[in-house]
Design a protein that fits this description.
Heme Oxygenase, Chain A; single chain; 2 strands; two-stranded antiparallel sheet; Haem_Oase-like_multi-hlx; mainly alpha
Length: about 260
């Protein structure tokens, strides 16, 4: 007997609540004894993921536009990808508020963005792309729903965090949370009655995808917490990353 995909959606909410107990939230985001700058000290390290996620929406999740026979879940996914198109601009606006928008050459910026300190965000994009590339639409839909659950959990706890000058961030704040909460993929139109029935095998496949997504984001969140703990002066962090990159030497076995 087939059941609605709502069972998978309910499973995502269960996993979201478990994710919300991660130390990233407990020790950092929800700790009001810390300054806003400290609670968001991890922000620069997510740049590769946020920019990469924009590309995931354009080139991986969005498919078959203009196809009149496109299945309903893919139509919903396509609409969602456009809603995510410009959130990254809020992130760039926030870098100045966070004291993280240092001036540097393009070569040094490349050393920072592709440095070891940011590898968790680059790798996450690649893992998600790989996961989606071999998955049917219903599994990708579950995957995107799980990513959305992660996002809204993070931004829920970013609401109200202000910098020492009293300003709140756009990406890491109420503005982004409100945008995430209003996405069409969460709207009444995407109700239980509009979601397809899935066989038991397909439901379990979708749940495995969901488990993998939350596992990836749990590892990512551990890296964000570590980055925030170890780096609080962004300019000094960038200087160290550039210096370490320039000091790198090729492996002896690869020379000549």
């Amino acid at each position: 007997m087939e059941r609605e995909m709502q069972e998978v959606i309910n499973y995502i909410e269960k996993q979201r609540k478990l994710y919300e107990a991660h130390d990233f939230f407990v020790q950092l985001l929800t700790d009001e004894s810390l300054s806003g700058e400290r609670r968001l000290a991890w922000a620069p390290s997510v740049i590769p993921f946020i920019m990469g996620y924009s590309d995931l929406n354009k080139y991986v999740f969005r498919k078959g536009e203009g196809d009149a026979q496109l299945e309903h879940l893919q139509v919903l996914l396509n609409a969602h990808t456009y809603e995510e198109d410009f959130h990254w601009q809020w992130l760039l606006n926030d870098l100045d508020k966070l004291g993280a928008d240092s001036r540097m050459s393009l070569s040094d910026a490349t050393r920072v963005l592709w440095g070891a300190d940011f590898k968790h965000s680059r790798r996450l994009c690649l893992e998600l792309a790989s996961l989606a590339s071999d998955s049917p639409t219903y599994a990708v839909f579950a995957m995107v729903e799980a990513i959305e659950a992660v996002s809204i959990t993070i931004f829920k706890h970013c609401r109200g965090i202000t910098m020492q000058d009293g300003r709140e961030c756009e990406f890491f704040g109420t503005k982004h949370y409100a945008a995430e909460a209003s996405h069409s993929i969460k709207s009444p139109e995407v109700a239980e009655s509009s979601l397809p029935g899935l066989s038991a095998i397909k439901r379990e496949e979708a749940k495995l995808i969901v488990d993998r997504v939350f596992s990836l984001f749990a590892d990512w969140s551990t890296s964000l917490l570590r980055f925030a703990t170890e780096n609080d002066v962004h300019a000094l962090t960038y200087e160290r990353m550039v210096r370490q990159s320039k000091d790198m030497q090729p492996d002896a076995g690869t020379v000549g």
